[in-house]
Amino acid sequence: MDNTSSEQREGLSFNRVMPIFVLVFVDVLGLTVILPLLHLYAAAFGATPLQIGLTVAAFPLAQLVGVPMMGALSDRYGRKPLLLISQITTCASFVMLGLAQSLEVVILSRVLDGVFGANLATAQAAISDITDEKNRARGLGLTGAAFGLGFIFGPIASLISLEVTGSLAVPAFSAAFYSFLSILLTVFVFQETLHPDSKKASQARIFTPFVIGRVLRIRGVGIILAILFAEQLVFFGFESLMGLFTLSRLGLLGQANALYFLLIGLILVVVQVRFIGVWTRRYGERKVAIGAMLLLTVGLLLVATTPEQPHPFYIERNTRFDLQEQIRSSTEVILGDLNVTLPDETQRGLGGVVWFLLAIVPLSIGAGLVRPSLNSMITQRVDSHTYGSVLGVSTGFVSLAQAAAPLLGGTIFQAWGASAPFLLGGLTMGALGLLGVLLLRD
Description:
single chain; mainly alpha; Growth Hormone, Chain: A
């Protein structure tokens, strides 16, 4: 490799990375316009709690089947054609959702997107193609930052469009529009990143069980994927239950929780854009990943011990009235009304709000560091012509965690109280950090 190419890889070529960053952002923007409202699409057709659960779980479960296969295909035929296939089917699925006249079509639209929607995994593979071990965590962090930005602005756009129009079709069609933009970006801006020699080297079978089995047999990869799955299960559980927890401890409703989510998203973006590259070059991915799990441990334990002290403007009577007007989360819809006891308004103050604010700082920093570090470690254990396969399996495991987290966390919340999911999550992350010290190797 010549010096010029080497320097570009060391510093990350802006011209090659930025199109991937924008693609991920636009794709996630479309996805997150739909996610907060998905249970409402099912409920609009009179779905039972079980059917709503199936509707919500259809996408991540289909991803577990489809993304490893799509990743393996991208190793064989290139990132660009697989990105296009993924984006076209995603766009079609959103159009189907907007036009749906039955629950079956709603579920089918999510299955279609799940099986073929490998946008993030393919984008991560493209980043891996154009980076080396010194800067890959930073490159993968940039895709995570784009993902975080999409999660900040997507739900906002979703709720605004629903509030203004009152139609569930409008968010679906706006998501299709964002997806169509990503198709145009891929056709006219994205440059193929997979080297022709890598295409020739990738001749493995692409049937999903073979792909997953092959990846899990690679030395050191299985334990990283297990840690990644457990970490994502814990963090998605936190995200899905945060609103219920802050209601029971701090008396906060949707608007205030939106500010907390905004702060979490901003911290994720800053960490992944500014710091992860510096820290992984200085300390290595293993130490950064272990440090991230310890930060998650501290953050979750602090969340679990948040004092029951509602904010200074809390009035219990008004909050009960406002709750009747709020849209329930998909976790509540599936599991039924969770046992949320409102705090005593005589205990009002700033202590609880400040405590929770401090708790989400280490939690968000850890979440911003851990997945890019672990994925970078995975790519260092495999040949370059299998990046799509291994990152596809990684994304599939994350999707499985996304499907399971709200139900598992909600069940624990209902059975043992508001602090239990976060206390157990913190202890789990501490155990994973110890496991990482013993088993992970750079």
